[in-house]
Design goal:
The chain is mostly helical. The protein contains 34 helices and no strands. The chain is elongated and about 105 Å long. The N terminus and C terminus are likely disordered.
């Protein structure tokens, strides 16, 4: 008992406890940052930006696809763990545990090569991982393969260290572990072979064993991968590595790939440098001892410097504080420099829009709204919260944001299919969803929408197929089972209010959707159902954004088809602009302009025309302050983006 207490109270024990405490603080902060700020639910959702997020289905058929090839086991396990990103706290926990295990493995390897003082370097890899998450990229599977390779190198070193018998048969141990690791993690085995070669050559001085490790990196992937499993020679050597063609082929997958390269190469490069440094020091030491030269007296400054370093290495508390502060500074600096508010807002807005959380869409968009996709989602949220005719110009607007038909957004299918469903364009929605299916695979979000669109269109058999696949997912199976049971009782879903509503809006005719036929499609939607409120409000918004106030005025009579208690404010502003410009009276059909809108129009005109003499640039700051949320302001500054962020 006394000896145990002495061990715990020893300097080495205090260093161990200090390192453990620092590690605990670091990874608690790591977890909380992922949970509260990054929010891995957004990476699971993907926002149409992440195309390599894996699909996971329950059942033997899905599992069988993975066990037939090298690396399949890591892919299967990583795909399963990735699904936990759907649950924010669980996903953050999985990502933190992955980073923590990598940290432990790196620390173990640095101790094994006799550099325990550099164990603080083990935190660099988790910090690099954190950067990839802040940029909303997905490299979890590639990093999981790295982790497995690091676990095997630690296992190899531990086995030959603890057992002299195994050390004598280290070739057999290495080859057995190599075959197992290659089957589990495919190309990540090359990292294991490289680290073993570096260790054997630079630490143990066994050049023959080192050469064997390097040769195995060429032989084992070819024999096991190509000859036994039948994969291509390229996949045999690169699968699950960051430079695999499966990653580099798609531009979206290459985001932050340089960071992943660094994560893979940092440890072997560090080991090579430290090994060469050790050899260099030995050479210098031999030369000095051979010369037997007289030592020169040290300068006072040199003695002071030596004293400072001596104090640093002997004072464990000082060392702990300095290293902890340095680690904190590096971590905070890395997160701060990699933080991208636009990308975070884009993912957040798309996530809320998909889940139809409209107030949250508007709240998130306040952070950064100078993005066409974000404003497209904002306009949908404004419509669904009955604010499109009131607060539309509280956000920057452009004629291309309403239907997301600007150049560069032609293939933004993910961003638009829900809008097409809402407005009644089921055929276009189905086409966009099919395109997404080709790119993103059997993602649950895509399957749900495809099943729903087919149910609305009455193609029940196709809907059953999508629902059947969706029933094998982890988190959407209940939704699929609910509709499958409903289809048994009501095959045409005639009692489903939402589906009946969408069927009443739906156009039977197929359309494309370009700037040339937007007006025609909206007219057709209103002919199909005069009470398609979304089609009406979007048509009026389209005319206002394009300055086509004559067509806007011609459709004012459609206000009678809806339950507007008064003329919406921005409609009043557009009407006053039209009257002021054309000097034509309008038939208000018994309605009256509000006093507030008329006073606001008068004040705006006086400020613009009298005080600034129609000088747009001189008036912009003054007008934006009081009228930035009005159509009056937009009409004057109609070019590009306009509007006022609140």
């Amino acid at each position: 008992m006394l000896s145990s207490f002495r061990k715990l109270s020893s300097p080495h024990s205090s260093q161990y406890m200090g390192g453990l405490f620092r590690s605990l603080i670091f990874f608690i902060g790591f977890y909380l940052y992922l949970l509260l700020d990054v929010d891995l639910r957004l990476i699971y959702h993907g926002a149409g930006e992440i195309i390599n997020f894996p699909v996971f289905l329950r059942g033997w058929d899905f599992f069988r696809e993975f066990i037939s090839r090298p690396g399949g086991m890591v892919e299967y396990i990583a795909a399963f763990l990735s699904q936990l990103f759907y649950i924010g706290w669980a996903g953050a926990l999985v990502a933190t545990l992955q980073a923590w295990l990598i940290c432990i493995c790196v620390g173990y390897f640095l101790k094994a090569i006799n550099y325990p003082r550099l164990c603080w370097l083990r935190y660099i890899l988790p910090i690099l991982l954190l950067i990839t998450y802040t940029q909303y990229t997905y490299h979890f599977i590639t990093v999981m393969a790295l982790l497995v390779a690091l676990l095997f190198i630690c296992l190899y070193l531990e086995m030959i260290k603890k057992s002299p018998k195994l050390d004598r048969f280290r070739i057999v141990v290495f080859l057995v572990l190599s075959v197992i690791l290659y089957y589990i993690a495919a190309g990540a085995y090359l990292l294991f072979a490289l680290l073993c070669a570096i260790y054997e050559l630079l630490v143990r001085g066994r050049w023959k064993m080192s050469l064997l490790c390097l040769l195995s990196a060429a032989v084992i992937p070819y024999v096991v991968g190509v000859m036994i499993c039948g994969v291509s020679i390229v996949d045999a050597f690169t699968d699950l590595l960051p430079f695999s063609w499966k990653i580099l082929y798609y531009q979206a997958n290459r985001k932050m790939i340089n960071i992943v390269y660094l994560i893979y190469l940092l440890l072997p490069l560090t080991a090579i440098i430290l090994g060469l440094w050790r050899i260099f020091l030995k050479i210098i030491s031999k030369r000095k001892s051979g010369r037997m030269a007289k030592a020169k007296p040290r300068r006072k400054s040199s003695k002071k410097l030596t004293g400072i370093f001596s104090t640093y290495f002997r004072n464990n508390k000082l060392k702990w504080i300095i290293e902890s502060l340095a680690l904190l500074g590096i971590a905070v600096g890395a997160v701060f420099l990699s933080y991208d508010i636009e990308k975070k807002t884009l993912f957040l807005v798309d996530y809320y829009a998909y889940n139809r959380k409209w107030p949250q869409v508007l709240g998130a968009a306040r952070r950064y709204s100078d993005n066409f996709s974000i404003i497209h989602a904002v306009n949908r949220a404004l419509y669904h919260t009955h604010k499109l005719t009131l607060e539309m110009f509280s956000y920057p607007q452009h004629s291309g944001t309403l239907f997301l038909n600007v150049k560069g957004s032609e293939f933004a299918y993910w961003k638009k299919f829900d809008f097409y469903i809402d407005i009644g364009l089921m055929n276009i929605a189905q086409n966009d969803l099919t395109e997404c299916f080709e790119v993103f695979g059997t993602r649950p979000m895509i399957l749900k929408r495809l099943a729903y669109v087919n149910m609305v269109k009455g193609d029940i058999e196709s809907a059953r197929i999508y629902l059947g696949v969706l029933g094998k997912t982890l988190f959407d199976a209940d939704w699929a089972d609910k509709y499958l049971k409903r289809l048994q009782d009501d095959p045409n879903l005639t009692t489903d209010d939402e589906i009946r509503h969408l069927r009443s809006l739906m156009l039977e005719k197929d359309y494309g959707f370009s700037a040339l036929d937007i007006e025609e499609i909206l007219s057709q939607l209103l002919e199909e159902n005069r009470q398609n409120r979304m089609a009406f409000e979007y048509m009026m918004a389209w005319y206002m954004l394009r300055g086509q106030l004559d067509k806007f005025v011609q459709n004012l009579e459609r206000l009678d088809d809806f339950d507007y208690t008064r003329i919406p404010r921005i409609y009043e502003e557009a009407m006053l602009v039209y009257v002021n410009r054309t000097r034509k009276a309008l038939d208000l059909r018994g309605r009256q302009f509000s006093r507030e809108t008329k006073d606001r129009f008068r004040d705006f005109s006086q400020t613009y025309e009298k005080e600034y003499r129609r000088n747009k640039q001189a008036a912009i700051k003054e007008l934006a302050k009081d009228y930035g949320d009005s159509y009056l302001f937009y009409y004057v500054y109609v070019y590009g983006f306009s509007g006022m962020k609140k």
